[in-house]
Amino acid sequence: MCRLKSQDLDGRHERGHGDRKAVSFFQSTVPEPVLVLSNVVVAFGALRAVDGVSLSVARGERRAIIGPNGAGKTTLFNAVTGVLPPTSGAITFEGRTITRDPPHARAGLGIARTFQITNLFPTLSVEDNLILSLRGLKSRKFSLFGSPDLDEDERKRAERALSMSRLGDRRSILVKELSYGEQRQLEMALAIAAEPRLLLLDEPAAGLSPAERGLVADIIRALPRELTIVLIEHDMDLALGLAEYVTCLHEGRVLVEAAPDAIRKNEQVQEVYLGKPRHA
Ligand SMILES: Nc1ncnc2c1ncn2[C@@H]1O[C@H](COP(=O)(O)OP(=O)(O)O)[C@@H](O)[C@H]1O
Ligand SMILES: [Mg+2]
């Protein structure tokens, strides 16, 4: 697949209307970028956790972000979701600048990330957690007591999310009775139910057994092809098995960007990543 740096993509926009033929040819051969980061810096005092990252993710792409602990991966996600607005640089989603938009505005545009475990309600069922999450999206008042009152669209979304996250037969189980792996599946279900166009997964398989990791990989692999997925993953085999393209971060910077095979062989990646313990 043809790969572009963000400068090239900017260049495309600068062609303007006088060169329509070239633009339409270009658009038919290169997938439209969904997410573009240009020179993004996130500083905590003197520490630049993200130190000038530029990257571009195409529609429908499955991108892995790898790198040793402390490389800046989660901070980069926080910049994309709006939890930590960048100190400098720019972020666009589907061509629209979102650099300073608050998290709820970005969610409304179609960006979802996996929820932390603490966002699940342990004493409620799988299905009720989904309903709460769907209602939260619509900011309607929700009462668990009384009629669940799901409209047709919500019912379909809940069903689809349950089935995609392989929790269809666990719908009435209380979250506290789910295994840890199933709780991670439910986090994915909540993100899927939002029907995002960009899904950010921060170590969805962390702390899981090999069998559970395999299931999470199968779930991700089976997500709709048009959904753009950016996955942070420590488990190199899992990340390289799922991604079409890989960005390796080191000390807040892009060390290497390449296809999985080239990443596996890359000496710089091996030095900073494979040579060190994968979990701190
Ligand atoms: N809220 C914060 N305040 C201060 N330093 C932080 C904060 N979040 C992350 N860091 C620091 O930023 C660096 C990158 O962290 P992080 O993005 O969590 O790395 P990764 O996800 O790649 O392991 C680390 O040195 C970490 O200690
Ligand atoms: Mg992290």
In the CATH scheme, what's the topology name of the largest domain? Answer: Rossmann fold
Count of strand segments? 10
Overall form: globular
Structural class: alpha/beta
Quaternary state of this entry equals single chain
Number of helices: 11
Q: What's the CATH C level of the largest domain?
A: Alpha Beta
Instruction: Report the sheet-strand fraction.
Output: 15-25%
Q: Within the largest sheet, what's the order of strands? A: 6-7-8-3-9-10
CATH architecture of the largest domain: 3-Layer(aba) Sandwich
CATH superfamily placement of the largest domain: P-loop containing nucleotide triphosphate hydrolases
Bound molecules: adenosine-5'-diphosphate, magnesium ion
Order of helices and strands: HHEEEHEEHEHHHEHEHEEHH
Mean pLDDT: 85
Number of self-contained structural domains: 2
Helix content: 25-40%
Strand count, sense and barrel status of the largest sheet are: 6 strands, mixed
3D structure, described in words:
By secondary structure, this protein is an alpha/beta fold. The protein folds into two domains: 1-17 and 32-106 and 198-210 and 231-280, Rossmann fold (3-Layer(aba) Sandwich); 111-195, P-loop containing nucleotide triphosphate hydrolases (Rossmann fold). It has helices spanning 6-14, 20-29, 73-81, 103-109, 126-138, 152-164, 180-193, 210-221, 236-242, 260-265, 267-274; strands at 33-44, 47-58, 62-66, 88-93, 96-97, 111-113, 198-202, 228-232, 245-250, 253-258. Helix 5 (126-138) runs parallel beside helix 7. It is globular. The structure holds adenosine-5'-diphosphate (ADP) and magnesium ion. Magnesium ion (MG) binds at residues 73-74.
